[in-house]
Design a protein that fits this description.
Layout lengths: L1 E2 L5 E2 L8 H42 L4 H36 L1
Antiparallel strand pairs: 1-2
């Protein structure tokens, strides 16, 4: 074992052999881990906070009546197309049944 000149020593693997110093080193490591965890938690919360702010800004945007009416017209047009396709499909099935008789 090599003496470092202080009141503690190191073994051949450079591990501290003095138990009080070892305890202090472990406490410092624990504190560093806690700080690292708190930093990561803070960054996650900061990211969530900005997302909430962005969502609120989007929700606060109000559509004007022209946009709403245009959307209703598009929906109505889509329903008419689907209804027409369904009607054509039913007619095709009926026609196919008549041909198979």
């Amino acid at each position: 074992m090599a003496n470092s000149g202080n009141d503690f020593t190191f073994d051949e693997n450079c591990n501290i052999e003095n138990s009080s110093v070892k305890g202090m080193v472990e406490a410092i490591k624990s504190e560093v881990d806690t700080i690292r965890f708190d930093q990561e938690k803070f960054l996650r919360l900061l990211g969530q906070k900005s997302n909430v702010k962005d969502v609120c800004a989007l929700v606060d945007v109000k559509a004007n009546t022209e946009d709403v009416f245009r959307l209703f017209e598009e929906i109505k047009h889509s329903i008419e197309i689907l209804t027409s396709k369904q009607h054509n499909l039913e007619q095709s099935k009926t026609f196919a049944e008549m041909l198979n008789e």
